[in-house]
TrEMBL record:
InterPro entries: Homeodomain-like_sf (IPR009057), HTH-type_Tx_Regulator (IPR050624), HTH_TetR (IPR001647), TetR_C_Firmicutes (IPR039532). Keywords: DNA-binding. GO terms for molecular function: DNA binding. Coiled coil: none annotated. Residues 34-53 bind DNA. This is TetR family transcriptional regulator. Residues 11-71 form the HTH tetR-type domain. It holds the Pfam family TetR_C_8. PROSITE patterns: HTH_TETR_2 (PS50977).
Length: 210
């Protein structure tokens, strides 16, 4: 039975289930976590759980997709780089701030559990955003390096850096990480418009936890 995802009660229930999942994943292997354990930890009934999800796998994939969607909704911002149109770019500051605010979720899914589905969703979404950006600003430019290689390199490097940052206990602030990544990306910048400018290094503002 489908639930109305915009209903505040539905949102509250899904958030409780997601928090319960992260809590359990810090203590047990994913395959050992049952629906019963999830519902007991979230303090909801099994009946309520099945109003929202078909089974545990459906719940896990839906929860991860919601996290990824919310992340990109927060970090993709408008840029006036193009005179012809407004294009979406990736805010490094918002990304690192968001990850810090939700470190328990990102750390357990990227490092503790080594969840391939979470990594793949992040990787594919970032790749799609970079591809779309390139289509808007690089239409008539001859790229020195094939786009798929640029995307693979930057995508893997960024997610690998995030994983290491979390694993090291976030000893550097989001501001420092933003500045450092912006500097590293700048070293790869050339005369032509490249994917480097897809990553915005501005530093103002804050984000709240989800």
């Amino acid at each position: 039975m489908a639930a109305n995802k915009t209903d505040p009660r539905v949102i509250k229930t899904r958030n409780s289930l997601r928090k319960a999942l992260v809590y359990l994943m810090r203590r047990e292997k994913l395959e050992d976590i049952s629906v019963q354990k999830i519902t007991e930890t979230a303090n909801i009934t099994r009946g309520t759980f099945y109003l929202h999800y078909k089974d545990k796998q459906d719940f896990i994939q839906s929860a991860i997709q919601e996290i990824v969607d919310d992340f990109f909704n927060q970090v993709m911002i408008d840029s006036n780089f193009s005179k012809e149109r407004t294009v979406k770019v990736f805010s490094l500051r918002k990304a690192f701030q968001y990850i810090e605010n939700n470190a328990d979720i990102f750390d357990v899914l990227l490092n503790n559990e080594k969840n391939n589905f979470f990594y793949e969703q992040l990787y594919n979404r970032l790749a799609n955003e970079m591809t779309h950006f390139n289509e808007q600003v690089n239409k008539n430019q001859q790229l020195k390096v094939p786009l798929n290689l640029q995307i693979s390199f930057i995508d893997s490097a960024f997610l690998g850096l995030v994983s290491r940052w979390l694993e090291d206990g976030m000893i550097y602030t989001p501001r420092y990480m933003t500045q450092s990544v912006a500097k590293m990306l700048d070293q790869f910048s050339g005369k032509n418009v490249s994917l480097v400018i897809f990553f915005d290094g501005e530093l103002e503002g804050t984000l709240e936890k989800i």
